[in-house]
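In this section we walk through a basic example: taking a raw amino acid sequence and producing a predicted 3D structure, encoded as discrete structure tokens. The instruction is simple. Fold the sequence below.
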Amino acid sequence: MLPNLAAIETRAGRIALGAKVKSTRYPVQGLVTAIVWAGYFYAIQVDNRHSDDAAHYELLSPPTPQGFNFVNPFSQRVTSGTFEVLLPGEGDRIYFADDAHQAVALLAAAIGLKNPQQWVDYLTQRAAAGPVNELRWRGEAVGSIVGQLAYVSTRQERAAPLFAIGQLVTFYNGHAPNSVSGIALYKDRRNYGKTVWHYFNAEAHHGHHPMSEAHTAAAPAQPSPQTATKPASATPLVPAEPTQFSEAMQLILASQAATVHDVAQQMKATPRKAAKLLKEMQELYGPAPTLLHLALFSGAADLIEMITALRKPGAPLKASSG
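The resulting token sequence is shown next.
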């Protein structure tokens, strides 16, 4: 079971506790009092009474005080910053900030802070003294977010995400491609605190938790219409004359008349079909097509193999009386 959240990302934007929302399915409007896991999706509870899928709410106004405009991950392209803000209330998600002002503004919106300018000066001094690693902040008296924690660190070196927004991927080795609509970084405390990139799915119909990079793979390339193979023609085409035909072999084959039995054996056809193919050969090569014509007609690549299949080994080739 996934933990309750202090905020959730949806197509309507970032909906946090205290935000004013409106249901798109029911005549429900009010303040968000809880964001809970409902088994298959996150549900938003309004005024401690009504609960529905988070994907079915419109954001009317953010909670006050806001102080920071969170980037919606459905269009987010930020994957690094001078400061990193870890929010346990959002499932240990890590946000990025370009400077101390932005980092403190993000803290003020997420957990609540008094006198933000004082904390901007404090964070600037700490960062100037050396790298900062998970400096703890506790929310101050601002409504329902009193006592929530956040951690601020300076830039950490890590591998870039493997996939970009808009790229087609598959999850759990599935076959249906999904489009990456957002990227988020989470800290996995159960895996020695390692950070893992996660990807939001544009095709998801609910407010699902994003998918871990460990279960994400690039979707196989789709064949283009230009490179698609054309269906084979029912009537065999006349192939170009094989270059390995020696002159002596051509003379021998040109003296042997092709029969319906020869055509059936070479073309792997029934006698009735072989008779029709022989008529096509007569239209192409004249009234008495030879084994050389049969080789050209069938596209034989090895004359010795063809002769061995049509005649018993060692049997002499007799010239036709015609």
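Looking at the output, two observations stand out. The first strand starts at residue 7 and ends at 10. The chain is about 20% helix and 25% strand. In the next section we compare this with other chains.
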